[in-house]
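Retro notes, structure queue

What went well: the backlog is down to a handful. What didn't: a couple of records were mislabeled last round, so from now on we paste the full input next to the output in the thread. Example, using Arylsulfotransferase ASST from Mucilaginibacter dorajii:
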Amino acid sequence: MRYSFSYFIVLLTAVILTGCNAPVTVKEIHLGLHKNNDLKIRIDVTTTRKADVYAEYWADSSAGKKYTSVVSKNADAHSFVLCNITPNTAYSYDIVTVADGKKTISKIYTFKSHELPLFLQDQFNAKTADKAALPPVFKDGLMLINKRYAPGVAYLVDYKGRIRWYHMIDRLGFKVINFTKDNTLLSILGRNDEPTSYGSEILEIDLAGDTLLHLKKGDADFKQTIHHEILKNNKGQLVTLFVDQKIMDLTKVGGSKKDTVNGDGILVMDKTGKEIYRWSVFNVLDPLKDPHLLKTKKDWMHANSLNYDTDGNYLMSFYNNGQIWKINATTGKVIYKFGKGGDIALPAECNFTQAHAAHINQHGDLMFFDNGVEKHQSGVFAMKVNEQAKTAQIAMHFQLPKQIFNGRMGSAYLVNDTTTLVCCSKRHIIVLANTKGVLQWTMETSVPTYRAGFIRYAQLDPYLKPLAD
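Corresponding output:
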């Protein structure tokens, strides 16, 4: 028995050593759609032993320009999702294995991508203005666009109006969506019967379309309806706006003794839905001082965006009073109120009415989309705000053509120093404008997207890269 046991150990060791010295080969390959998405091809690979493995793929018409998948490390079962796919296109691919310092490339395999479903065709119509030269950076990225009613769709679209990536949800709409610093897509989901930018679920997915986080109203401390914004802070926590209801005696202004005023608040939760921080507009402002409260009580302030200043404090814009507030993220104290009736002195030319998508741009300026309700013409502002002196200077301002006046929703983000990507939601159009407001490029959309963000390909690598065209 001792001899037989010793022989078994030696034989097993020999087999293992032989296996370690043998080249890694591919045993099986399975290919299909990832989650029934026509622009995501999934490849499952098994190898004879553990190795680092990745896929190379290319369109047959692209003169051999190769794209590379993520790398599956030190495993014998591997899965890849290829996202740099165009519809109805013939592709070739190979599987690369790396083990013991040796790289092995499999034989070449082929597949053909599907045509996009009919409901995704002809969604976007892009045009470049005559004699306009689009900045190279605009061709080096994609626009993030969302369909707000069910079935909800998140799209990444290029400057030609081509859908390069999408993710669909059957029963809910993507009410708001943001691209995070972790290169993920974070969204508020809502039913069709919920207001425009309001929802009751939070979804985070990666670029492969896999779910990283999904919270529903009722989970842990997530009890409120949320709206208009969903972000991550530097701790990876979820930051959103919520509807804060307060029961008040409004008899002094002609209301009832137990009346309800709907205000807004900031809610910070961890990934399980546990509340970390809460701030309410009721903490700093008395609704009874609003002479129009009986008309506005159902949506008193209507907060419509939330972002961070460079010092980590909050920037929050309100539609109903047309102001942008800076709020101390620790104490909740309002640092300044920017806009009519605020405490920052405004230049005479800064006559904006209602603002959306307030944020700090790459130059450190407070930038926002001006709905321009009073003058019936929308535009874009970037302001240099001096908190200590309580003053502001215009760093950039242009008005859009009156034909695309956008009284509600909208966004404006710099693409480079001379062009701005502007979303006119109500007009179903996204435009690229120069610093004088002249349109360089337009894209008509089939969906009234809430915003249009711009994401560089460097942030989407290796899932998405520029096409060879």
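Agreed that this is the format going forward. Reviewer comment attached to the example: The two ends are 70 Å apart (CA to CA).
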